[in-house]
Amino acid sequence: LFQQCTSFNQNIGNWNTGSVTTMRDMFASATSFNQNIGSWNTGAVTDMAGMFDSATAFNQNIGSWSLNANVNLSSMLDNSGMDCANYSATLIGWNANPSTPNGRTLGALGRTYGPTATAARANLIGAKGWTITGDTPFDAGAASSTPTLCINTALTSITHATTGATGIGTATGLPAGVTAVWASNTITISGTPTASGIFTYSIPLTGDCSSVNATGTIVVTPNNTAGVASSSPTLCINTALTNITHTTTGVSSISDAGVSGANGLPARVSASWASNTITISGTPTVSGTFSYSIPLTGGCSSTHFTGKIRVNINTATPECPPVKCGTATIQVNIN
């Protein structure tokens, strides 16, 4: 009737259509038509094939229409202008109508439905045996990765594929230094995080449908740290060292754990790590001032823990005051 009438856009919502049996290609390529015809009586119509095919301006909810048991819906909404909100409402309306027939094939090429219509569409397909062709969900896909990385390290880009979106809103939950952009139906998250922690982000899609968010998690590990030594002792040679401890974060072990004299420690003294604590212990068999520096391993960044141990020898020298070692009073030189 109005096929390829590119200028037609008159109000015909009050037409009496109760006796009409075919609306095939009625508004096909009528690129200006966009009137509310949701109140039409379509119960007798058996052919709606191509009815709004390429009617690019038409954007109305027709979910209130009663569909004939034998109606042909092929190509009905292909390439029409029906947006996500109205297409979703149409699916919801048809699904809710107990007289909606079984076994129909609906052409909906290029249409997008939102989360509110997911259950209705699934029921039309599953319970009523419909076939719906060409539509896609308004959706954001899963994150391409859920990374764990070190602070101040460039993030390998995370992507989410989107359908039906026209862009994204303001992202929340991303670490400082990391941003999200959208282009060509893809969200790309990139940057260099400058804060540590577990970050659960949410990025809203923009478009003509209900709220959908791309979500995911980024774990940013802080740099290794080692606290100051619990003490910087001075002791006599061949005397058991009162344990020195350092607390750590982000560490999985230390270099040369258990190795006597390693990394600047005196002979017969070694360091071990467990439960985020470094413990230095042993009985030094050499004298001197020992400035140790032991690398942390695992976690992020190259870090050492450092300290100093002074070991006195039981030999008197005229330059130093007496120091008592065990039961003997001796003169020692402390380097």
Description:
The chain is mostly beta strands. The protein has helices spanning about 85-95, 120-125; strands spanning about 105, 110-115, 130-135, 135, 140, 150, 155-165, 165-170, 180-185, 185-190, 195-205, 215-220, 225, 235, 245-250, 255, 270-275, 275-280, 290-295, 305-310, 320-325, 330. Strands 5-7-10-9 form a four-stranded antiparallel sheet, with no helix packed on it. It has a four-stranded mixed sheet with strand order 6-12-11-8, with no helix packed on it. Strands 13-15-18-17 form a four-stranded antiparallel sheet, with no helix packed on it.
Summary?
The chain is 7% helix and 33% strand. The protein has two helices and 22 strands. It has helices at 84-96, 118-126; strands at 105-107, 112-113, 131-133, 136-137, 139-140, 148-150, 155-163, 167-168, 178-183, 186-191, 197-206, 213-221, 225-226, 234-236, 244-249, 253-254, 269-274, 277-282, 288-297, 304-312, 322-325, 328-331.
End-to-end gap: 106 Å
Spans of at least 5 consecutive residues with low confidence: 317-321, 326-335
- Please give the count of helices: 2
User: What is the approximate shape?
Assistant: rod-shaped
Order of helical and strand elements: HEEHEEEEEEEEEEEEEEEEEEEE
- Characterize the main sheet: 4 strands, antiparallel
Question: Could you list some keywords that capture this structure?
Answer:
4-stranded mixed sheet, rod-shaped, single chain, mainly beta, about 325 residues
